[in-house]
Amino acid sequence: MTKWIKKSNIETPWTTIGDVLGGVLDKITHTRNARPRNIDAVWSAIVDPDYAKYTRVEKILGDTLYVKVLSGAIYADLVMIGTSDWVATLQKQESFSHIQKIVYRR
Questions:
Q1: CA distance 79 to 84
Q2: Which domain CATH number covers 78?
Q3: Residuewise pLDDT in 10s, the chain (106 residues)
Q4: Which helix (H) or strand (E) holds 88?
Q5: Suppose 96 and one of 66, 90, 92, 102 were both cysteines; which one would form an S-S bond, judging by CB atoms 3.0 to 4.6 Å apart?
Q6: Is 68 exposed, middle or buried (0-12, 13-18, 19+ CB in 10 A)?
Q7: Distance CA 55, CA 40 (A)
Q8: What total of structural domains would you count in the chain?
Q9: Number of other residues whose CB lies within 10 A of the CB of residue 96
Q10: Would you tell me the crossing angle of helices 84-92 and 39-46 to the nearest 10 degrees?
């Protein structure tokens, strides 16, 4: 049975704390794990085609872009090259201006 509370002529159902927190956590998780549709195209455009062939963007979490590397040799190259140039290029794109770091995963 739903209980109702009357606030300024608007009837609102009582809500449990679990309902509220569940909704908030769903929104936070969806926002933090957001993966923009065009990220694959942007990534392929900024890295060398040989690297793009062996990498996949996994997700963006906060200000970090996570990239899955499918080859050990490519992973070693990417780690040695660094990310500052690619981060700077990503930041020029309006939807990726918040990216501060790229993390490579094997």
A1: 11
A2: 3.30.300
A3: 566 555 555 555 556 666 666 666 555 554 555 677 788 899 999 999 999 999 999 999 989 999 999 999 999 999 999 899 999 999 998 888 899 999 999 9
A4: helix 84-92
A5: 90
A6: middle
A7: 10
A8: 1
A9: 19
A10: 130
